[in-house]
Amino acid sequence: MVERGLRSGQVRNQPAGWHVSMNTSSSPYAGPLWSRENNLSLIVDFHNEVKRNFRNELLRINEKLENDTTLSSDQRTALQASRDSYINTFEPRLRVNTFLMMVSHLEEWLLHGWKQLAPTTELLEAKGSIGRFKPVLKHIGVDLSRSGPWMFLKGCQDVRSCLLHANGRVSLNRNPERIRNFVAQHDDIIRIVNDRLILDGAFLKRVRNAVEQLIASANSEPVIQEK
Prior knowledge:
With 227 residues, this protein is mainly alpha-helical. It has helices at residues 30-67, 73-117, 134-139, 148-166, 176-185, 201-216; strands spanning 190-193, 196-199.
């Protein structure tokens, strides 16, 4: 099941849902792009398969609660608790973990681009941030001056940091105000509830689209630096 528009891809010669307009026969980045689109599709496939299993289990639980007249009070309570866990714990955690894998995928691509295409380019002093790769992206032909995906993904880095280092607790993050501002700009897909970040399914779709667009904006024939 695809959650709120999160597209599923299949591992095939031309992975579905990825749109890169470039001359793959001449670009030294063709191989990395193809592998990255496969990897991102696999992340989405993982999410969708796990979510499908969640939904099947919810259907089983609901059917049992509605139709099984032999259930004791304790059995009914246990099933209701399981249903609540799937809805309020398992699915939100699945979205968090899928998001973290997508961001890791982006960081891998940036690191690969630096090592393979611009090894002599000096990274910016921004430890743990994708912002340090800005000179690399400029070198391979990505114009970040008007890049909406880049700005969105930089905000996602703050979300990632909060999820990993503060368990999503905004007030415990190093820069809570920056996260609140990001959430305010995208409150249709990400929220703060009781001081914790809540990711909607549509947030995953936006992240995937942004990663795709950023990678696709790479020059079709970037200049490779000599090592």
